[in-house]
Structure formats: C-alpha cells, structure tokens
Design brief:
There is one protein chain. By secondary structure, the protein is of the alpha/beta class. It contains 10 helices and 15 strands. The strands form 4 sheets. The chain has a 7-stranded parallel β-sheet with strand order 1-4-5-8-9-14-15.
C-alpha cells in the first residue's frame, strides 16, 4: 500500500514513467490526510532531510483542500487505478471525526472509498491540544465515533502513533472502539536545529521523522501487538506495517513480525520503482521457499 501523506490524493502516480507497473504492484492506494475543512498547513520550512537520504522530518500540517474538494476533484481520478481506495482522515475533535467519516461515505455516490484510515496523531483542540493517540480512552472514543458514523460500509483502519510507552494500549483501545484493522507506525516526533541560525529549522519546530531510521521501531511495535493481542495474533484484526520500508527484505521483516500488509512512503520519494521491487522480491522469496505470505505472517513468533 502507499503510506498516507506520501502519494497525494489523486493522480500523482500517472505522472511517472512505469505507472502501470507501479499500480500493478499495489494492493491499495492510501490518500494524503483529508480534513472536513481546507487546511493551509504549517508555515515556514516544512521538510528537513536527515543524513543524506536516511530519513526526513516533515511538518506539513495536513495541508489539503478539504473533504468537499476531495470528493469532487480527487476521488473521481482515483478510479483509474482500479485499486481499493483508503482515505486517511484527520480532525480536531471526536465529534468532528464522526462528522467527517459520515460526510465522506454518504457523499461518495459511486462507492469508490473502500476504507478510512483514522489518523489519531493529531491534537484534540477540545482537550487542550492533547494528542488523541497517546490516550487510550480518546482512541476508543474516536474509533467508536467513526464506526457509529459509517457502520460496515467501509473498512476502518486505525493508524497508531509510536510516541507512546506501550503501543498495545492504544491498539487494544482501537479494537474496543470497533476498528477493523490497525496500521503502525505513524512518524516519530523529532526536531532539527539549523546550526547557522542556531534555531530550530522547521517553522513548526517539531516534525515527524520517517524513513529507514524508524524501521526497527515499527517492526518492534508490530511484533508487540501480534505477540500480546489475541485479535492480532489470530488475524481477526490485521496489522499494516509502516515505517522505513525501502526493500523487500524490510517488508518481509514486518510480515514476519505479524503484519498482513505493508505501507511504503518515504522510500518512493527517491525510488519510483520501490513498489515493484518490493513486490517482485517478495514473489521471488515465496516461490524459492515454497511458502505463502499468509504462512509468513507472524512466523517469527513460532517456537
């Protein structure tokens, strides 16, 4: 899958050479974050590269044109991919999450949207800016609000933040709220300092770290959820592994840790063929070892 925030919301893939191969290598397209009303995003510098391609810190601020524009302009263009479309959603309050989910699904007249990925890494303005994802009670309430709004019309995926002590707590809360799946991880909080000005480089000061550096953290958190949560272990609640995947071996680590699917984002900023390479690598591995991806999911837990 594409990872939210890295593939835009409509036809970015069509601008690339080899677009057909890219689409054929994907199992789903996950959009950039969509909010109820338009957002201009953060001001100032919004992106910092870390150690020549080892990762990036971004502080985009969920810039988007809002749900109405997404439905009218972006969603129709996604039909060309003939892929399941998962819309990443963000909001400032629990009620707004429910309202946004309802608006998108009720106004998706052609039933293009397959799923909603709930971004619980955004702050709740009604709770003094506390991040939803670090409080299990809030996680459950957000997921429940979305579930109540959409019922079984679309698949609900809850994207977990890594900025917690125990990833299984918000994961369990999301399951209690009614999520159909979990995705992890979102970016990790980070700061870059400009040594010339002696000030934080990003306009928003704090950004989100992504890229190869976060992969071991992402693999660990998938591993923990699969190990400690029965619904994940029996695959009733599938896990999507995200964070730092740039090769098929990276993807396989996530799968062996317990992921049913993987999302790739930052890597394809520098390698447009990454989806094809990962798919081909996994196909070759399974054929050479006479084993399926399903059988490999969580295999590292076997004794």
């Amino acid at each position: 899958m594409t990872a939210s925030g890295t593939s835009g919301s409509s036809d970015e893939i069509t601008k690339l050479s080899g677009k057909n191969e890219i689409v054929q290598s994907l199992g789903a397209f996950v959009t950039k974050g969509v909010t109820l009303k338009p957002r201009h995003g953060n001001s100032g510098i919004r992106l910092a590269e870390i150690q020549s391609g080892k990762g990036i810190i971004n502080s985009i601020g969920i810039q988007n044109k809002g749900a109405k524009s997404f439905l009218e302009n972006d969603l129709p263009r996604l039909v060309q991919y003939q892929l399941p479309v998962v819309v990443n959603i963000s909001a400032d309050s629990i009620d707004e999450f429910g309202e946004l989910a309802a608006y998108l699904t009720e106004n998706d007249v052609n039933k293009i949207i397959t799923g909603l990925e709930i971004n619980i890494s955004c702050p709740n303005i009604n709770e003094g800016g506390i991040i939803f994802g670090v409080n299990p009670k809030m996680v459950e309430k957000v997921v429940a609000a979305v579930k109540k709004s959409v019922g079984d019309r679309v698949v609900i995926i809850t994207k977990l933040t890594p900025n917690v002590t125990d990833i299984t707590e918000p994961a369990k809360a999301a399951i209690a709220g009614g999520t159909d799946s979990l995705s992890m991880i979102n970016t990790m909080r980070a700061v870059a300092i400009d040594i010339e000005s002696r000030r934080p480089l990003l306009g928003n000061i704090i950004g989100g770290l992504s890229g190869p550096a976060v992969k071991p953290v992402g693999v660990f958190m998938v591993y923990e959820c699969f190990r400690k949560i029965q619904e994940c272990r029996n695959k009733k609640i599938p896990v999507v592994g995200i964070g730092g995947i740039s090769t098929w071996r990276d993807a396989l680590e996530y799968i062996m840790a317990g992921a049913t699917a993987v999302g790739i984002g930052t890597a394809w900023f520098v390698n447009n063929n990454v989806f094809c390479e990962v798919k081909n690598g996994l196909v070759n591995y399974t054929e050479e070892n006479n084993i399926t991806i399903s059988a490999l999911t969580g295999i590292s837990h076997e004794t």
